[in-house]
Amino acid sequence: MAFPEAIPAITIAHYLFVSAAMFVMGLVGFLTRKNMIIMFLCTELMFQGAGLALIAFGRHHLAADGQTFVIFVLCVAAAEAAMALALVVLLFRHKETLSAQAWKELNG
Amino acid sequence: MINTTLLTNLLPSMLAISPDTSDAAASHAQSITQVGTGPKWILLIIGLPMLTSILCGLYAIIGNKTKLPAWTVVAGSGIAFLATVAMYMSFDATPYTVHAFDWIQVYFGDKSMIANFSFYIDTLTIYWMLFVTGLATLIALYASEYMSHDVGTSYCRFFGAFGLFVFSMACLVMGDNLLMLYLGWEGVGLCSYLLIGYFYKKPEAVAAAKKAFIVNRIGDLGLALGIYLTFVHFGTLEYAVLFNDPTLLGYIESAKVGNFEAIPRIAQWIPLLFMIGAFGKSAQFPLYVWLPDAMEGPTPVSALIHAATMVTAGVYLIARMYPLFLTSEFALPIVAWVGTITALLAATIAMAQFDIKRIMAYSTVSQLGYMFAGLGVLTPTGGVYHVLTHAFFKALLFLCCGAVMHGFAGQLDLRKLSGLKNVKGWGVVTIGMLIGCINLAGVPFTAGYFSKDTIIAESFVTPGTSMIGWILLFTAGLTAYYTFRVFFRVFMGPVEYHPGEEHHDDDDHGFHPHAPGWAVNSVLITLSVLSIAASGLYFVGGNKETHTKHYAQTMVMFSTASYTSPYSEHAIEAAHESHDPNAGAGPRGTIEHALEVPIFGGDPHKMMYYISAGFGIVGIALAWFLHLFGRTNAAECKMDPIAKRFGPIPKMAENKWYVDELYALIFVTPLRIIAHIFHWIDKLLVDGIVNLFGYLPRIFAWVIRPSQSGVLQGYAVSMAGGITILLLVVFVIIMQGGIS
Lengths: 108, 740
Description:
- By secondary structure, chain A is mainly alpha-helical.
- Chain A has helices spanning 12-32, 36-60, 65-95.
- In chain A, helix 1 runs antiparallel to helix 2 (36-60) and helix 2 packs antiparallel against helix 3 (65-95).
- The termini of chain A are far apart.
- Chain B has helices at residues 4-15, 24-28, 43-62, 68-89, 123-146, 153-174, 178-196, 203-234, 239-242, 246-256, 265-281, 290-293, 299-308, 313-320, 322-326, 331-352, 356-376, 380-407, 427-441, 447-461, 466-490, 518-536, 551-557, 569-577, 591-594, 604-627, 639-645, 649-654, 659-704, 712-735, and strands spanning 36-37, 96-108, 111-121, 417-418, 496-497.
- In chain B, helix 7 (178-196) packs antiparallel against helix 8 (203-234) and helix 13 (299-308) runs antiparallel to helix 18 (380-407).
- The relative contact order of chain B is 0.09.
């Protein structure tokens, strides 16, 4: 296996690209899927995309703020995940389905 | 009927007298002496009735079920009456004021408006308060029995309003400024409203109460404007200052020589406005329509408020403000003519009514017309004397009618009552009624005869008003007729009676009238005695120094109402005593010349005794022939076929000449239509604007509501789209070089 001669330096642009890709995948997933668990996972994906961008910028500026912030976000995300899954379970018990369409009656 | 040139030329000629006529009486007039301060116990007269009213309210709250309210009011009014008597006894011809507390004191610049809660006591005040408190006591005693069916809260309500009325009347009569008078004026109006509407479950009573209140509002507006104008022009509301005001005294001097151009027009408007107020309160044409309807109230109320006291407030106002009335070219002639027209009109209506209480009501209107005519033809004495005599005999008549109504289950139709004289237990009522009737009819040597004659005689000697005299004389005949029509129908003739609508048994045979008890009888006896005694006042109480001949004249002469017509009997006597052949000389010649105007071949002051007695006796004789002679039952009499000959006229008179209908057409219906228009404007326009502001958010919500679809992804799309657009905007701005 021959490595390329010169691995181009991984710049902030790469991180941002990955971050944006994760975010867009999450967004598209959220918009297209009906299963509430999948939608929830998609929001997590967007979260992590945004977190990655924060870490990248933190590194870029050689500051710890970004990473610190992400630690907090992760904590909150963990708590929120527990909450969200509990909600999904409750919603499922009501309608015997995970489809978000089932709750269309909550319109204005 | 009114000769307009006569009207406009009347007062200058009525007042015209050369200034050098300095007889004793004339020089006494308008010289109001220094006003002193009186003792504080006089405040009892004001305070006690108010206290009784408050106590009655408390009784109602604690649920008193006895006659205690009645005894409270009788005691309160009685002590107030005794205090009035004491005030009278201690009075020595000098008016004084009694100060209760400071009320309204406004200072602006060098001017000030002072209206204290204080009282002005002169002979006129005492004269009025004597019969107000005296009659209030008697009628409260009568009402204690009359209202006994209602013992409980209603009883407390009745006597509470009764006490409040006496308080208000005392404020009206005793107040030392026009604002106090206005306070009392509105107070008696309120009590009148409350007591007419006493049977508030009866629609007629409620309608009558509202009618009385609303019609009085028209008059009250006049009074209020008059008070404003008085303040604007003379800068004071206090009698003590106003009647000594040099400007006013100057105006009066100008008026006496007929020089009305010297008096500003604005000042001449003041009495005209007061006059409107007096017309409303004293039920004069065209504002008299409320008084007959006011008979829906309990009879004691009709007797006290709507016959004896409150309705004379207008007479009091004019008598009190007489100096102001002299300064207007038109006020007194209009007062005289309106009074005369009212007297005639009401008498014709009274002739055709069948409800005895209504007859008495129209009779009251008619007699008030006499009082106004008296004031208008320059004899405040006559008007004020008639107030007193009328108060006694009309209260008596009403209370007798009330006793009949009470005993016969609300029956008031004279076609359904007959011969009560011979029913057991009705002797006192019959005698009381007879005494009232002879007074009202002007039978010789009764009080009503003397007071009415004073007015009629004076209207014949005052130049330009002999037409008024003739009308009043004719009306006196009508009065005698309708008065004795009631007496002969109800109290004389064969015994026959049917119970009124308050009797609920199926057949008439089971009905037994219940004769009045001791309270009613004792009051009727007292009032009968007073009515007779009032005629004695014509012979006593004269004053040699001021040439007054009798009590009422003396009382008037020492008050603000003191004005001596140059044509009055007493001015003539004074002129004779001064042995000056030119005494009383004026533009119309000497007094002797002025006396040539009448047609009785002598001094009308003397001749009137015979002539008016003649008219009265003819009236009574007619009533006897048509309503008693040969009558065999209650319903039919000789008058019925004669009435048919007059075609529609009796029917029209019975329907009150359709004046109420006319007012309904001219005033009430257009006002109702306007009210409906405003109602719809309010509903559509005003409410519409308000509702529009309520609907706007709803419309906005209705527009944007579909965006909340309930589909989770929809929200996410709009959120993402929104953020995208926002980012694009930021991007474009940055591309453009940022925000500078």
